[in-house]
Specification:
mainly alpha
Length: 84
C-alpha cells in the first residue's frame, strides 16, 4: 500500500489560516457585540496581548496564525516520517 506525503508548509498554512480567521472574526464580533467576549477572554490566556481593541485583535490573529502554522508544519513532518 502506498501513502501520500503531506506538504508540511501547506498543512501549516491551512491550520494557521483557519485558526487565525476564527480568532479574527471572534475578536471583531466581541468588539461590536458582547457575545464574543467569552471567547476573547478564554483565548487571551494563551495569546498575551489579544484584547478587544483593533491592535489587540491584530496581535491575537497574528499569534494564532503563527501558533497553528508551526503545529501544522510539525505535524506534517511527523506524518511524513511515520508513513515511510
Amino acid at each position: 500500500m502506498t501513502y501520500a506525503k503531506l506538504s508540511p508548509k501547506a498543512l501549516g498554512m491551512a491550520f494557521g489560516l483557519i485558526w487565525g480567521l476564527i480568532v479574527l472574526v471572534m475578536g471583531i464580533v466581541a468588539h461590536f457585540h458582547p457575545i464574543g467576549v467569552w471567547f476573547v477572554n478564554s483565548v487571551k490566556a494563551v495569546y498575551v496581548g489579544y484584547e478587544i481593541t483593533w491592535i489587540g485583535i491584530a496581535i491575537g490573529t497574528l499569534m494564532a496564525f503563527v501558533h497553528l502554522y508551526l503545529k501544522g508544519f510539525i505535524l506534517g513532518i511527523f506524518y511524513n516520517m511515520f508513513v515511510k
